[in-house]
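Renewal narrative, Specific Aim 1. Our central claim is that a sequence can be written position by position from structural information alone. The example that follows is taken directly from our test logs and has not been curated for this report. It begins with the C-alpha cells describing the chain, in the order in which they were read.
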C-alpha cells in the first residue's frame, strides 16, 4: 500500500473518511474498529481537537523536530521546494504537514526516501505517537499503523543510486 493512500487519513475527515480507512485493508483494522459507527461530524470534531489544538499532537512534523526554532523555517522552505519538484500541490496546510509529507515520500527516489524517513519523519511521528498515547486519542491506532508501514519501507534493502519502484 502506498503512502499516498494514507495521506487523506491525516487530513480533515470528509464524508468518505470511513471508506478510505476501509480501503487500506488489514493494516488499519484496529483503527477501523475504533472509529466504526462514529458519525463523521464526531470524527471531524475529534480530528480538530486532536491535531489542531494540541501542539504535542500536531501533524506538522517540523514542529515535533524543531518547535518554533529558526531551523523549522529552513525545513519548511526545503519541503516547499521538494513538493514543487515532485509536482505536489500544497493545501491550506504548511509544507511539513503529514498529509503533504506522505505524498512526498511516495515520489522520492528510494535512497532519498530512506534518508528522509530516518532523519525526519520517523522521529517526528514517534513524538506524535507519544502525544496521542498521553491523550488516549482514537487516532493512536492510525499513527501506530503508519509507523509499521514506515518500518516495512525501511526494512527493504536500499541500494545507493538505484530506484526499485
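The sequence written for that structure reads:
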Amino acid at each position: 500500500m502506498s503512502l499516498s493512500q494514507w495521506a487523506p487519513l491525516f487530513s480533515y475527515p470528509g464524508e468518505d473518511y470511513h471508506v478510505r480507512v476501509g480501503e487500506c485493508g488489514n493494516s488499519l483494522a484496529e483503527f477501523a474498529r475504533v472509529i466504526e459507527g462514529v458519525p463523521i461530524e464526531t470524527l471531524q470534531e475529534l480530528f480538530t481537537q486532536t491535531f489542531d489544538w494540541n501542539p504535542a499532537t500536531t501533524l506538522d512534523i517540523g514542529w515535533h523536530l524543531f518547535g518554533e526554532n529558526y531551523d523549522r523555517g529552513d525545513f519548511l522552505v526545503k519541503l516547499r521546494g521538494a513538493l514543487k519538484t515532485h509536482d505536489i500541490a500544497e493545501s491550506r496546510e504548511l509544507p511539513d504537514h503529514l498529509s503533504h509529507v506522505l505524498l512526498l515520500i511516495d515520489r522520492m527516489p528510494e535512497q532519498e526516501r530512506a534518508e528522509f524517513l530516518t532523519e525526519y519523519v520517523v522521529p517526528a511521528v514517534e513524538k506524535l505517537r507519544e502525544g496521542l498515547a498521553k491523550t488516549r486519542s482514537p487516532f493512536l491506532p492510525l499513527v501506530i499503523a503508519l509507523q509499521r508501514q514506515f518500518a516495512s519501507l525501511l526494512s527493504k534493502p536500499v541500494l545507493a543510486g538505484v530506484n526499485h519502484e
